[in-house]
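Lab notebook, bench 4. The sequencing result for the construct came back, and we need a structural model before the next group meeting so we can plan mutations. Quick request posted to the team channel:

Model the 3D structure of this chain.
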Amino acid sequence: MATTSVGPLAGIRIIEVGVMLAGPYATMLLADLGAEVIKVEPPGGEISRQVGDSYFASLNRNKQSICLDLRSESGRQKLGDLVADSHALLVNMKPSAIRRLGLTYESLRTFNERIVCVAMTGFGLDGGDDPAFDYVIQAATGVAAMTGDPQGPPTLPGYSSADNSTGLAAALGLLAQIVSGRGGQVDVSLRDVMLSQLNYRAAAFLNDGVEPQRHPFGAHSYYVPAQLFSTAEGFLALFITHDAFWAAFAAEAGIEGFPTMAERAARRDEVLAVVSAVLATDTASGWQDRLRPLGIPVSAVRTLPEALAATPEAVIRAGEFDLVGSPIRIEGYEPDYRPAPRLDEHADVIRGASRPAHSS
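Done. Here's the predicted structure in token form:
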């Protein structure tokens, strides 16, 4: 199939009033798929420009930039002109700031009845202005409490899981409302997204009163063995979810017994002692090479540099930066990765553009 640089979201125009990570990540994913994304920045630029050039580039490729002072009447009017010719507006700020700057559907519907307004906040548009950064949300929703060694303190992952997850959810909500053909307000909060992602953990507590328990090496609460293991050299992630996997692994490792999932769960400590002893006889990479051909879910623990080196197809070039490309691969479509915009780079083009709203 011939490839094209015309994405599936070509003709969709999205305004982003984004800050730092969650909002910009959501709209970048949409821009990678061909949407026209106009990044509205305050005088002086969006704050993440101050974090570092590569940081900003990693979240803002394929966008246009225009500076507007949304605290002024002229800035709000210029935003209204953009809204009139756009499908959606996405913002991530405190609820009071979103309302004060007129970035809700109720404020913008006078410019365009079919505009989709997505508000990304910590606790919802009606949830108040308490600070809600990624790590705070992980602490507030139980994620930190269930992560880490059982004898150690709560632990946070090494990346912004709440922000990134909320970006994905916001992009989904935005597209869903555009597809519906109706304008309206979409409300996505970091708290709700993280609670949603605790699905089976939350269900176990709500229905059976089972509170999450930490296990050594990040062991799964249901499947055994499914965790990290120390080997003769390095650590190995082994994830045995059903009996066929166990049978193949046990045959290769020379382990007898524990044939059913129920028995392995009931005799967790015994199983883990046997498996740990066997895995200590070879290296992580050795076990990976032995078990993968058998179809067993396994991986040696890699550093990020090692993972990137092993996956060169995931890395793209956008301007002067090497970045991780879009995770969404669509047959026949190859994104045209453009660099993150300079501050106010597209002001003249955007202000001079005139086209009917909803041209798609």
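The first strand starts at residue 13 and ends at 17.
Will bring this to the meeting.
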